[in-house]
Design a protein that fits this description.
This protein is mainly β. The chain is about 5% helix and about 40% strand. The protein is built from 3 helices and 17 strands. The longest helix has 4 residues, at about 20-25. The radius of gyration is 17 Å and the shape is globular. The chain starts with 19 loop residues before the first helix and ends with a strand.
């Protein structure tokens, strides 16, 4: 069972459950109440196939893209609910999974009057291999609708394609460094931060982001690793950059894996949690 035990709000949170620093603060905690926000939590306890590339889990419908030989499903015999995205041994093969149908959205990030909706997102994951030039490229976060499609990341380099997105990217051609990035389609990718310590293969991590419209202009969207504020932020200037930030664009949760070599790779997802306010501040 997922552990929701309280952890001090200033320390690293490596517990199995969602990070207290994100979800216990009142302005975010209340968004799980339908009176205040739209939310979901998916523990991936039993992922079922609805049709080819269509899946059903606790939070509802998901859509996938799977190159030949790639597979998606629960790890057999694991009662905690672990979802595995597994590629085969073909270079540049990929697999991705996005919340909802190809036209579904559940998040909008904006700084415009009447559209300043508080938001929180977090997921727990591990990657099988984080090695220069052989481990898989991965992305966790949110992207425009119908992004679970071929070449969500670029062949060979693992760079992000030109879509609306915001989230966490591991490019194994760059020493497996975890980066936080955003982009608006037809704009320029912006790297908010590069985490200074390489992640470790087959190790569970939690990554999260929170948009607090009432925060100072210098800290509008905060990013977390294992419950620790990573110290670089999306600012009001970013949010108002209509060329490069996906302000007002329709987004939904996506997980993606792409081979960087002729070697199988996988990402495992324990859970994902999301909430966004119904009303603007």
């Amino acid at each position: 069972m997922t552990n929701f035990g309280l952890v001090g709000l200033s320390q690293q949170d490596t517990t199995r459950g969602p990070s207290d620093i994100i979800w216990r603060k009142p302005e975010i905690a209340k968004l799980s109440d339908p009176a205040f926000g739209a939310s979901f939590f998916d523990d991936f306890l039993a992922v079922g196939t609805a049709a080819t590339n269509d899946y059903i889990s606790e939070s509802g419908f998901w859509t996938s893209y799977e190159d030949t030989g790639s597979t998606l499903g629960n790890i057999a015999g694991n009662h905690h609910g672990i979802l595995q995205l597994l590629t085969d041994t073909t270079d540049n093969d990929e697999i991705s999974l996005q919340k909802g149908s190809p036209t579904s959205v559940h998040c909008v990030l904006d700084d415009a009057a009447g559209a300043k909706y508080a938001m929180a997102w977090e997921a727990r994951f591990n990657v099988s291999n984080i090695t220069d030039d052989t481990g898989p490229h991965v992305f966790l976060g949110m992207a425009e609708e119908n992004s679970a499609a071929a070449d969500f990341m670029v062949d060979d380099t693992g760079d992000m394609v030109d879509k609306d997105y915001i989230g966490f990217h591991i490019d194994t051609s760059n020493a497996g460094t975890l980066t936080v990035k955003f982009n608006k389609a037809s704009g320029t990718d912006v790297t908010v931060l590069s985490y200074g310590t390489d992640l470790v293969a087959d190790t569970w991590y939690k990554v999260g982001m929170v948009y607090r419209p009432s925060n100072p202009d210098s800290k509008k969207i905060t990013f977390y690793l294992d419950g620790v504020d990573l110290g670089s932020y999306v600012t009001a200037t970013h949010l108002q950059d209509d060329t490069n930030f996906p302000a007002g664009e329709q987004l939904s949760t996506i997980f993606a894996v792409k081979n960087s070599a002729a070697a199988a790779g996988n990402m495992e997802i324990d859970w994902v949690r999301f909430a966004q306010s119904h009303t603007s501040i």
